[in-house]
Design goal:
alpha/beta; two-stranded antiparallel ribbon; single chain; 14 strands; globular
Length: about 350
């Protein structure tokens, strides 16, 4: 990776469940003030709280540029419904949507639905890959100019530009077409945590952005190389893959001694990499890892969103911008543009359709 490659930054805005939309709106707008690529909002069947996708649909009209990426669990859900909901978020945000693909592994979560028992992680991630595949096909099932909206003739759509996807997988079959027109981005951005083995294969095959947890730059670089190799084996251009280091950050006390571990603060936590320290040292870590080719950027999860996100944006990001290491404004309007990713061609349209 070139030392001059753009740095990509994203942040999680979740935490203990909140039912005040202003809380999430405020955090998203703060992240947008720092020109971050996107924010994520975690979700799970294992805990109470508002639906992440619905919350970010509420946040969308109050923001103008930042990408919005809710966690969407593909286990116990129908891919047709999931693809429609994510496409809708892309429409209401005018091309700023993504989805953070996750699976549900526990028996307690399975009993909430009562349709099937819990399954092994490798089986669930294969199913998640099928969900991502059929979602992309459904997003393509409307050509970009399928809508006519001709009042004089009473024609709303050109039926020749709607396509059956006729997907047959191990977990489900979907005929299509979609009920939502093709999203503004063509395909909303797909995000997968590719740290674990079963998820990594799905990430390499279907994700636009892959998160990896690492406690050393060499570990992150090895994961990035492995993901790019796997993506190429699936016939993908590895340069269309963005690999971000997922880092949990605690900026509660800039003067507190760092946790034992790496030179710049991260140490192994139960669920991955963890940083405790100040905004300046976090900026140094990001700079060193990125310039060393360890990753395309970072996804930061604040321990305390209301406190730590402000310090990330006004401390860490501001310093990176001052050093001309991170942008100060959005050069485009869609999440794909923020990430430097092209709008995918439509697989069903003649000659690939409009890109």
């Amino acid at each position: 990776m070139s030392a001059t490659a753009p740095l990509h930054l994203a942040a999680e805005i979740g935490g203990p469940p909140r039912y005040d939309p202003g809380h999430y709106t405020g955090l998203a707008r703060l992240a947008e003030h720092g020109a971050l690529d996107f924010v994520t909002l975690g979700d799970s069947f294992a805990r109470p709280g508002p639906d992440a996708l619905a919350v970010l649909s509420r946040v969308a009209p109050t923001t103008g540029r930042i990408g919005l990426v809710p966690t969407v669990t593909t286990t116990h859900t129908e891919p047709f419904h999931v693809s429609s909901a994510v496409a809708t978020l892309d429409w209401v945000s005018r091309g700023r949507a993504g989805w953070y693909v996750d699976v549900s592994t526990t028996g307690a979560e399975a009993r909430l639905f009562g349709r099937r028992p819990a399954a092994p992680a490798d089986e669930l991630w294969r199913e998640a890959g099928e969900s991502a595949d059929v979602a992309a096909r459904l997003w393509d099932s409307w050509e970009d100019d399928a809508e006519i909206r001709d009042v004089a003739t009473g024609r709303f759509i050109d039926r020749d530009k709607l396509h059956y996807v006729d997907f047959e997988g191990a977990a489900f079959s979907v005929r299509g077409p979609a009920i939502v027109p093709r999203p503004p981005q063509g395909h909303p951005v797909t995000v997968v945590d590719g740290t674990s083995g079963p998820a990594r294969e799905t990430a390499a095959r279907h994700a636009d952005v892959v998160l990896v947890r690492a406690t050393a730059p060499e570990q992150a670089a090895a994961a990035r190389t492995d993901l790019r190799r796997r993506a190429a084996a699936y016939g993908r251009d590895p340069d269309t893959l963005r690999v971000l280091v997922a880092l949990t950050v605690d900026l509660g006390d800039a003067e507190t001694a760092r946790e034992p571990g790496l030179e710049s603060g991260p140490s192994l936590a139960a669920d991955g990499s963890y940083y405790r320290g100040g905004p300046v040292d976090l900026a140094e870590l990001i700079t060193r890892w990125h310039r060393g080719g360890a990753a395309d950027g970072f996804h930061l999860t604040p321990i305390t969103p209301g406190r730590d996100l402000e310090r990330i944006v006004n401390g860490t990001v501001a310093l990176l911008q001052h050093r001309s290491l991170f942008r100060t404004f959005y050069p485009g309007g869609t999440l794909r543009e923020h990430l430097g990713l092209a709008r995918p061609a439509n697989r069903y349209a003649p000659e690939g359709g409009r890109a």
